[in-house]
Amino acid sequence: MDFSTDFSNNIQHFKTTLHVEECFDVVYRVVEIGGRKGCLFFVDGMTKDEVLLKILPIFQAMKPEDMPQDAHGFSKRCIPYGEIGLVSKEADAVIQLLSGMTCLFIEGYDKCLTIDCRTYPARGVGEPEKDKVMRGSRDGFVETLIFNTALIRRRIRDPKLTMEIMTAGESSHTDIALCYMRGRLDEKLLSMIKSRISNLKVDALTMNQESLAECIYPHKWYNPFPKFKFSERPDTAAASILEGNIVILVDNSPAAMILPSSVFDIIEEADDYYFPPVTGTYLRLSRMGISVLTLILTPLWLVLLQNPEDIPIWLDFIRLSDAPHVPVFYQLLLLEFAIDGLRLAAINTPNMLTTPLSVIAGIVLGEYSVKSGWFNSETMLYMAFVTVANYSQASFELGYALKFMRILMLVLTALFNWYGFWLGLLLSVCAIIFNRTIAGKSYIYPLIPFHWREVKKRFFRGRLPHTEKNAG
Fold first, then answer.
1. Contact (CB, 8 A) for 86 and 111
2. How many CA atoms lie within 13 A of 217 on its CB side?
3. What span, in angstroms and rounded, lies between the C-alpha atoms of 330 and 336?
């Protein structure tokens, strides 16, 4: 419904739509502005009171002859504030109000004036727990969208940097910011993403980025390898934008979604670029090698135990020192699930109890589980390595994808011996090769299709990507 010049009708409709009488946090105040009736609506806790306290005396001091003929003139001449808007539809004004805007109605005007003096409860931009670096900036994204865009703007002071705002969710009306550099990105990909977001038919983005990711790329859900890279670091997001990627920020989420993303993009970390090229190359290759080891170590050990005649002399120490009471396959499978249980318990454990419970868990599940006969010490050793090695890269999604592939390899190895091991390895490789980015390109580019110059960049840390681009 469009607003009219009937002040009482506008106010009554607005109060009914917002259920003002039932909602204690939706506040309205009737004021007099230049001899006319006025009414302010705002949400308590989302408005800067000091801004309203400065504007109200100006309204009270206005005289009838100072009042412009229309709302447009009033917004230009009578409100000494920077962010003022005009809304003619009630539905748009309701969304603006619930987003934190202050809505002003004035008798005789057929539009609602919106004053952007909103504020949100927010935590500090401290370093994210998961995306830590040994050297570099210590700030991180938070749950407030405008803070996150400012952190990127601070790093890229170029007019080509575009922050395009969109909304999704019929109930939530969640703000979504598309961040990209004009002239460096794939325009077709940008158009496709904007079209998919515009056509979303969802009630709310309850899980923020994950809800959005599943909506804009619903294909191949059965493939566990991640289609997007997530980062809580502004420097990583800024570097990705400079490389021609698109960064999607969702309000109420402290993580940026970077696309398109290949497996090499997901493996990369900020530490690769905060150290000299030699050190960065070592860190990158070490991370890649450890990721491969987490996939094949326990299945390879299992198949060698099943075929002791294939164990070379120099690897004779990998044999079990004690006869197992529980088959090794079941030991490995139990530990896979037990480790996830411990991880979930650690997340939900109060900080004051973390240390004592960690000691108890280490003693009980480590020493006593071996003495009781449930597990062999060698099984505990290899699974401990796999567990710790999973934290060598920051992507939770990639870590769980490798875990699922490792469990598949263990099952196939237990059933079909060497044939099962090679079949599981083949399926894991195929899951990576036949995966596709959201742009429809190869997940392992530049290996397929092969591009030697890009391969060197992916495996060996050279000059910073945006430095090379500018130098070229």
1. yes
2. 22
3. 10
Which has the closest alpha carbon to 28: 44, 17, 13?
Answer: 44
Query: CA-based angle 245:248:250, to the nearest 5?
Result: 170
Q: What is the pLDDT of residues 272-331, one digit of tens each?
A: 888 888 998 999 999 999 999 999 999 999 999 999 999 999 999 999 888 888 999 999
What is the pTM assigned to this prediction?
0.85
- pLDDT exceeds 70 at position 364: no
Q: What share of the chain in percent tops pLDDT 90?
A: 49
Tell me if 103 sits within 8 A of 12, measured CB to CB. Answer: no
Strand partners, 181: 161
Strand order, beta sheet including 256-259: 161-168, 174-181, 246-250, 256-259, 229-231
Average pLDDT estimate for 344-356: 73
Is residue 320 within 8 Å of 378, Cβ to Cβ? yes
Please give the C-alpha separations between residue 306 and each of 216, 370, 384, 418, in angstroms, as whole numbers. 45, 21, 21, 9
Strand partners, 256: 231, 249
Dihedral angle at the C-alpha atoms of 462, 468, 471, 472, nearest 10 degrees? 120
Q: Going by DSSP bridges, is the β-strand pair 36-43/102-106 parallel, antiparallel, or unpaired? A: antiparallel
State the Cα–Cα distance between residues 265 and 240, nearest whole angstrom: 9
Quickly state the pLDDT bin for 355 (edges 50, 70, 90).
Answer: low
Residue with tokens 């575009």: 162
**Residue partners of 64: CB distance under 8 A and separation at least 6:** 34, 35, 36
pLDDT averaged over every residue in the chain:
88
Q: Residue 397: name the closest of 297, 258, 286 by CA.
A: 258
Residue among 257, 232, 231 nearest 141 (CA)? 232
Pairing of strands 174-181, 229-231: unpaired
> Please, are residues 97 and 18 in contact by the beta-carbon 8 Å criterion?
yes
Looking at 157-233, list the stretches that DSSP marks H as alpha helix, in order from N- to C-terminal side: 187-198, 209-216
Average pLDDT in the 145-159 region?
Answer: 93
Dihedral of the alpha carbons of 305, 308, 314, 316, in degrees to the nearest 10 = 70
48-60: per-residue pLDDT in tens? 888 888 889 999 8
User: How many other β-carbons are positioned within 10 Å of the β-carbon of residue 128?
Assistant: 19
Rounded Cα distance, 111 and 103, in Å: 10
Using an 8 Å Cβ cutoff, are 139 and 126 in contact?
A: yes
- The radius of gyration computed from the CA coordinates of the chain, to the nearest angstrom, equals 29
**From the CB of residue 54, how many other CB atoms can be counted at a distance below 10 Å?**
13
